[in-house]
Amino acid sequence: MADARALGDALAALGVRRGGTLLAHSSLSGSGLRAADVRDALLGALGPDGTLVVPAFTPENSTTSTAHLERVAGLTEREAAAFRAAMPPFDPATTPCPSMGVLAERVRTTPGAVRSGHPQTSFAALGPRAAELMDGHHPHCHLGERSPLARLYEADAQVLLLRVGFAACSAFHLAEYRGDPPPPRRAYHCVVGTAGNWVTYEDLALDDGDFAEIGAALPPERLATAELAGRPVTLVGLRDAVDHARDAMTGIRR
Fold first, then answer.
1. Using one digit for the tens of pLDDT, what is the confidence trace for 123-146?
2. Residue 79: inside a domain, yes or no?
3. Which of 125, 132, 56 has the alpha carbon at shortest distance from 94?
């Protein structure tokens, strides 16, 4: 069982920048930590001038994602069609992000939080730069130049992997958009505006299947690592992560 004090000590030792911007991915299952305490520890490490960002993705708002397919598993074709026809639209203010974990949901629902507007891959943020970083997330751009990830790159943010590995590092997706050539495009489907109003758009065919391999090849001197409640904690500069992943993908994805 860990506690918030141990987390605060770990964050200080890792080198979370006071006054900086931090993108946090986390899994608190089995840690003994409350999401509110982790949020407060992260905000405390960042200080009043720092900004905390979390992924608030909603893959449930889809016809093809694993999260959505699990919800319609076992339904007849007619029942699945009725389920989809009644699905509520994405609302940045109210739509939960259950697959992102309890910390992301806690940050999203904290008074003053700002959420970006993408119906499937939004982010939520707390702090003085929250509105600036979340603004302008284009509804047809998951995680590229018109998403908060590009602004986090410009802001020289850090990435914290709290008891999760690089397989969860969403910053690597920005590298896909910056690859030469980028991945092919595919169709995505989601509900927006009103219940059952399914729309289709095109974006890159994103693939996180090699993210763990890419992360494992990051130069050790670029990483700060620790352990919390039996699992690793890693801090890395977002620019370092994206630039490394862009180069690595050239060799891995031939």
1. 999 999 999 999 999 999 999 999
2. no
3. 56
* 219 assigned to some structural domain: yes
For residue 59, is the peptide bond before it cis, meaning its omega torsion is within 30 degrees of 0? no
**Look-up of token digits 């001038």:** 49
All residues at 6 or more sequence positions from 51 whose CB lies less than 8 Å from its CB, including other chains: 20, 21, 22, 125, 126, 127, 128, 129, 130, 133
C-alpha 197: how far from chain center: 25
| pLDDT tens digits for range 60-91 | 999 999 999 999 999 999 999 999 999 999 99
Phi/psi of residue 173, nearest 5 degrees: -65, -35
**Phi, psi (degrees; rounded to nearest 5) at 42:** -65, -45
Which residue range forms the structural domain that includes residue 36? Answer: 4-58+96-183+207-252
- Check pLDDT > 50 for residue 1: no
Q: Tell me if 173 is assigned to some domain.
A: yes
Q: Classify the C-alpha dihedral 115-173-175-248 as positive or negative.
A: positive
* Burial class of residue 148, CB neighbours in 10 A (0-12, 13-18, 19+): buried
Number of domains in the chain: 1
pTM: 0.95
Q: Where are the alpha helices (DSSP H) in the chain?
A: 4-14, 35-46, 66-72, 77-85, 102-108, 130-134, 148-154, 171-177, 211-216, 238-252
DSSP state of 184: P
Under 8 Å between Cβ of 202 and 187: yes
Q: Is residue 112 in some structural domain?
A: yes
